[in-house]
Amino acid sequence: MGRYEESTEYYRQFIELDDDNALAYSYIGENYELMGDIQVAGDYFKFAMEHSDSGYLKLRYSAYLFSIDRLPEALPYFKEGWKTSTDEERDGFASDFGEMMRDPVIKSIINE
User: Fold this and answer.
1) For the whole model, what pTM was predicted?
2) Where do the domains of the chain lie, and which CATH numbers do they carry?
Protein backbone atom coordinates (compact mmCIF):
# COMPACT_ATOMS: atom_id res chain seq x y z
CA MET A 1 0.00 0.00 0.00
CA GLY A 2 1.35 3.38 -0.99
CA ARG A 3 1.71 6.50 1.08
CA TYR A 4 -1.51 8.14 -0.17
CA GLU A 5 -3.53 4.96 0.31
CA GLU A 6 -2.24 4.65 3.89
CA SER A 7 -3.07 8.26 4.60
CA THR A 8 -6.55 7.80 3.14
CA GLU A 9 -7.16 4.84 5.44
CA TYR A 10 -6.01 6.91 8.40
CA TYR A 11 -8.51 9.67 7.58
CA ARG A 12 -11.26 7.11 7.02
CA GLN A 13 -10.68 5.89 10.56
CA PHE A 14 -11.07 9.48 11.71
CA ILE A 15 -14.39 9.65 9.87
CA GLU A 16 -15.56 6.44 11.53
CA LEU A 17 -15.14 8.25 14.86
CA ASP A 18 -16.66 11.51 13.63
CA ASP A 19 -18.49 11.37 10.31
CA ASP A 20 -18.87 15.16 10.29
CA ASN A 21 -15.11 15.75 10.23
CA ALA A 22 -15.00 17.90 7.11
CA LEU A 23 -11.24 18.34 7.23
CA ALA A 24 -10.72 14.57 7.07
CA TYR A 25 -12.93 14.42 3.96
CA SER A 26 -10.87 17.20 2.41
CA TYR A 27 -7.62 15.36 3.11
CA ILE A 28 -9.04 12.22 1.52
CA GLY A 29 -9.96 14.33 -1.50
CA GLU A 30 -6.42 15.64 -1.66
CA ASN A 31 -5.05 12.10 -1.58
CA TYR A 32 -7.32 11.02 -4.42
CA GLU A 33 -6.29 14.09 -6.38
CA LEU A 34 -2.62 13.19 -5.90
CA MET A 35 -3.37 9.59 -6.94
CA GLY A 36 -4.99 10.90 -10.14
CA ASP A 37 -8.62 10.03 -9.38
CA ILE A 38 -9.98 13.50 -10.01
CA GLN A 39 -13.69 12.61 -9.93
CA VAL A 40 -13.51 10.93 -6.54
CA ALA A 41 -11.33 13.77 -5.25
CA GLY A 42 -13.98 16.27 -6.29
CA ASP A 43 -16.69 14.34 -4.49
CA TYR A 44 -14.70 14.44 -1.25
CA PHE A 45 -13.78 18.12 -1.61
CA LYS A 46 -17.38 19.08 -2.29
CA PHE A 47 -18.67 17.05 0.66
CA ALA A 48 -16.10 18.65 2.96
CA MET A 49 -16.92 22.15 1.79
CA GLU A 50 -20.69 21.62 2.08
CA HIS A 51 -20.40 20.31 5.64
CA SER A 52 -18.32 23.10 7.10
CA ASP A 53 -18.30 26.86 7.38
CA SER A 54 -14.52 26.82 7.00
CA GLY A 55 -13.22 29.47 4.64
CA TYR A 56 -10.17 27.30 3.99
CA LEU A 57 -12.31 24.38 2.77
CA LYS A 58 -14.09 26.72 0.38
CA LEU A 59 -10.70 27.85 -0.91
CA ARG A 60 -9.58 24.25 -1.29
CA TYR A 61 -12.72 23.32 -3.23
CA SER A 62 -12.19 26.36 -5.48
CA ALA A 63 -8.62 25.16 -6.14
CA TYR A 64 -9.95 21.76 -7.17
CA LEU A 65 -12.43 23.40 -9.57
CA PHE A 66 -9.67 25.66 -10.92
CA SER A 67 -7.45 22.61 -11.53
CA ILE A 68 -10.08 21.03 -13.77
CA ASP A 69 -10.64 24.27 -15.73
CA ARG A 70 -13.92 25.26 -14.08
CA LEU A 71 -12.90 28.78 -13.08
CA PRO A 72 -16.38 30.35 -13.36
CA GLU A 73 -17.72 27.75 -10.93
CA ALA A 74 -14.69 28.18 -8.63
CA LEU A 75 -14.99 31.95 -8.26
CA PRO A 76 -17.86 32.20 -5.75
CA TYR A 77 -16.21 29.60 -3.51
CA PHE A 78 -12.89 31.37 -3.77
CA LYS A 79 -14.41 34.77 -3.05
CA GLU A 80 -16.27 33.59 0.04
CA GLY A 81 -13.36 31.46 1.22
CA TRP A 82 -10.91 34.34 0.84
CA LYS A 83 -13.15 36.65 2.86
CA THR A 84 -13.84 34.18 5.67
CA SER A 85 -10.49 32.44 6.12
CA THR A 86 -7.81 33.63 8.51
CA ASP A 87 -4.63 35.38 7.40
CA GLU A 88 -2.69 32.23 8.24
CA GLU A 89 -5.02 30.07 6.13
CA ARG A 90 -4.78 32.52 3.22
CA ASP A 91 -0.99 32.56 3.42
CA GLY A 92 -0.84 28.76 3.44
CA PHE A 93 -3.28 28.52 0.56
CA ALA A 94 -1.35 31.10 -1.48
CA SER A 95 1.84 29.16 -0.88
CA ASP A 96 0.30 25.83 -1.92
CA PHE A 97 -1.64 27.11 -4.96
CA GLY A 98 0.67 29.69 -6.53
CA GLU A 99 -0.48 29.06 -10.10
CA MET A 100 -4.07 29.78 -9.16
CA MET A 101 -3.04 32.89 -7.24
CA ARG A 102 -1.37 34.29 -10.38
CA ASP A 103 -4.61 34.11 -12.38
CA PRO A 104 -5.77 37.67 -13.22
CA VAL A 105 -9.37 37.03 -12.14
CA ILE A 106 -8.23 35.59 -8.80
CA LYS A 107 -5.87 38.55 -8.32
CA SER A 108 -8.76 40.96 -8.86
CA ILE A 109 -10.79 39.24 -6.11
CA ILE A 110 -7.86 39.39 -3.71
CA ASN A 111 -7.42 43.10 -4.38
CA GLU A 112 -11.10 43.99 -3.84
Assistant:
1) 0.89
2) 1-52 (1.25.40.10), 55-112 (no CATH)
